[in-house]
């Protein structure tokens, strides 16, 4: 494992009976990066994170985290990482301050430092005016901030966040990400799973998981640029007819309607003539032009082949 990597995993696999939840995944997470896991529910994100934390033993594969072998050195790793789950896991019948003080005790922070550290976190995470309030009465965004404050109580080198913003409003999500970048700027490595495209675009580097398989890995910009020439925008007065005509073509990966316009992802940019012909037949007044690829296009392109193969493997009804 190189000194520039916080996490290195090779052939990481987890089998639950007949189900292979994670299938031969290789990961390299640079130190100080915000590294995203993008994928739908059931794609293997949470299972992968639990194996990297040492909470779940892999069926096969090698894991190095912060220079430690996992799961053999999982106990030593606990003091150096923070972990925030999707579900609020603090004590709802304790106050905000009591929750943070309890976490400080669990992390064995020196008593002389606890009050200063808790006060600083209450201030930094905008909870000072809620210090005496029971955690169970907080809003979703406040609970999220409290959980993050607890996860960083001991100033971990590496922070694992499993779908941390799934139950909060857009404004709270934006504030949460500001906190993550402040942590990254201070040197913390962050691995965060999400199914939100706008959050994935914020990450320094991104891995896309699909049914346990790593189907793409790179910076959001590089992954998007790889699709240059394959994405098109269509303006049509009859978008449903145009969509049906384009979707029927062999060279089209997907056609999505966005308002009155269509977004088309093709297998390659060389097949534009059949697209134009099909579009003219459906709506002579429609227009089509190349558009910049989005991260959603990247996701669809990365998972498209496996989705079709899965459908072909299903037995006939």
Describe the structure.
There is one protein chain. It contains eleven helices and 14 strands. A hairpin with a 2-residue loop joins strand 12 (252-258) and strand 13 (261-266). Helix content is 37%, strand content 27%. It has helices at residues 45-53, 74-78, 96-106, 111-124, 140-151, 170-185, 197-200, 220-225, 239-247, 272-282, 295-313; strands at residues 5-16, 19-30, 34-38, 60-65, 68-70, 81-84, 158-162, 189-194, 205-210, 213-218, 231-235, 252-258, 261-266, 287-290. It folds into two domains: 5-219, Rossmann fold (3-Layer(aba) Sandwich); 229-291, Alpha-Beta Plaits, CATH 3.30.70. The longest helix is centred in the last third of the chain and has 19 residues, at 295-313. It has a six-stranded mixed beta sheet with strand order 6-7-8-3-9-10, sandwiched between helices. Strands 2-1-4-5 form a four-stranded antiparallel beta sheet. A four-stranded antiparallel beta sheet has the order 12-13-11-14, sandwiched between helices. It is an alpha/beta fold. Residues 7-236 form the ABC transporter domain. It comes from Chiayiivirga flava. One of its GO terms (molecular function) is ATP hydrolysis activity.
């Amino acid at each position: 494992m190189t000194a520039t990597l916080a996490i290195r995993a090779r052939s990481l696999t987890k089998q639950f009976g007949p189900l292979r939840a994670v299938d031969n995944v290789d990961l390299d997470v640079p130190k100080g990066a915000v590294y995203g896991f993008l994928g739908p529910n059931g794609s293997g994100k949470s299972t992968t994170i639990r194996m990297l934390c040492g909470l779940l033993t892999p069926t096969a594969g090698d894991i190095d985290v912060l220079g430690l072998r996992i799961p053999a050195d999982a106990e030593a790793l606990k003091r150096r990482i923070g972990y925030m789950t999707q579900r609020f896991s603090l004590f709802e019948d304790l106050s905000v301050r009591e929750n943070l003080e309890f976490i400080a005790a669990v992390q064995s922070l020196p008593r002389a430092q606890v009050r200063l550290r808790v006060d600083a976190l209450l201030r930094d995470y905008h909870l000072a005016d809620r210090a005496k309030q029971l955690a169970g009465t907080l809003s979703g965004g406040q609970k999220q901030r409290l959980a993050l404050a607890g996860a960083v109580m001991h100033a971990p080198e590496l922070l694992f966040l499993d779908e941390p913003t799934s139950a909060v409003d857009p404004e709270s999500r934006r504030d949460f990400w500001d906190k993550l970048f402040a942590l990254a700027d201070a040197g913390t490595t962050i691995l965060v799973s999400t199914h939100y495209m706008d959050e994935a675009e914020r990450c320094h580097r991104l891995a896309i998981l699909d049914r346990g398989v790593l189907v793409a890995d790179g910076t959001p910009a590089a992954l998007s640029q790889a699709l240059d020439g394959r994405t098109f925008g269509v303006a049509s007065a009859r978008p449903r007819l145009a969509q049906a005509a384009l979707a029927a073509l062999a060279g089209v990966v997907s056609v999505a309607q966005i308002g009155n316009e269509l977004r088309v992802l093709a297998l390659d940019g060389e097949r534009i003539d059949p697209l134009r012909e099909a579009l003219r037949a459906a709506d002579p007044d429609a227009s089509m032009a190349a558009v910049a690829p989005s991260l959603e296009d990247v996701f669809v392109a990365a998972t498209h082949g496996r989705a079709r193969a899965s459908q072909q493997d299903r037995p006939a009804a």
